[in-house]
Amino acid sequence: MDLIRRLFTAALVAGVLSGTAASVVQQTTTVPLILEAEKYEVVTPPPASATANTAASTAAPAGHEHAAPVRQLGEGVPESDGEAFQRLWTTVVSNVIAGVGYALVIAGVMLLMGQRVDARRGLLWGIGGFVAFSLAPSVGLPPELPGMAGADLAARQIWWLAAALCAGGGMLAVAFAKNRLVIGAAVVLAALPHLVGAPHPESPEGAFPPELAAHFVTSALGTAALFWALLGAVCGAMMGRVIDTAHDEP
Amino acid sequence: MTTRSIRTTAATSARTAVAAFAAMLLGSFLLYGVGFAQPQQIHDAAHDARHSFAFPCH
């Protein structure tokens, strides 16, 4: 039980730290872009459809007093301070849970591999986590803004998971396997979801400017990279002693 | 290596594996909740986190 307690403590510390740090960074990187994109989300269809499309493409603000609004603000856009505060804290809690979840997975794999870790090697693990859970899925399914057209959600979730697990498993095999055949198979495994291809919508365009989507991709990946670097380094620092004692204990 | 030390090594690695898999299982459960679960309230609460972490959201 002592091992489980120390393992979970390490993951908890790493997850809370990285999730909190990500929350702070997100407020200046990804969240403003999400709020901006939600202004383009159509909640109720416009009454007159003929002119709506051209108005949408020029992104004119729907503020004319005599005309019916072309679109309304998305339901997620905070309309009051209370709503904004609730949105903030649920996001922070979600980030911390995601941080603890990822840290538990990484710490568990670290323990299974049984190799010595410290903060520096943990940083490498963090980079691996970033490649597996952020970069590899993003190659096929770039980070989405609200309002972007997407293929069937379940299909995208399955592909996301396949891309992440294949990349993660492939990297672990390349890093730790001794058999060259296994390493070769691991590279093929990591490439497999990308050879199959991610599910894409028939018409991929969103209503907002493409610059917004491009900016969001770099912001999301950059924030994720910071998150993973911190998570990996803290996991490595805290798991060092756990792994040493786990394999020495009678 | 004596029989006893082989037994203790096996017991240690079994315990290590159980702890590791317990952590990975709980971690996966948390990630499922934050990133994948579809009930409206969970989706709304995790919305900005999902987009920022590049989970498929809508």
Describe the structure.
The complex is a heterodimer of chains A (250) and B (58). Chain A is an all-alpha fold and 250 residues long. Chain A folds into two domains: 2-39 and 74-246, no CATH class; 42-73, no CATH class. The relative contact order of chain A is 0.19. Chain A has helices at residues 2-28, 30-38, 52-58, 81-113, 119-140, 153-176, 180-196, 210-246. Chain A contains eight helices and no strands. The model of chain A is unreliable at 48-74 (pLDDT under 50). In chain A, 70% of the residues lie in helices and 0% in strands. Chain B has 58 residues and is mainly α. Chain B has a domain at 22-58. In chain B, 81% of the residues lie in helices and 0% in strands. In chain B, helix 1 packs across helix 2. Chain B starts with a helix and ends in a 6-residue tail after the last helix. The mean pLDDT of chain B is 88. Classes of the chains: A mainly alpha (250), B mainly alpha (58). Chains A and B meet through helix 1, helix 2, helix 4, helix 5 and helix 6 of A and helix 1 and helix 2 of B. Chain A: This is Cobalt transporter. Chain A: Residues 46-67 are annotated as: Disordered. Chain A: Pfam families: CbtA. Chain A: Residues 49-62 have a biased composition (Low complexity). Chain A: Residues 1-21 form the signal peptide. Chain B: Pfam families: CbtB (PF09489).
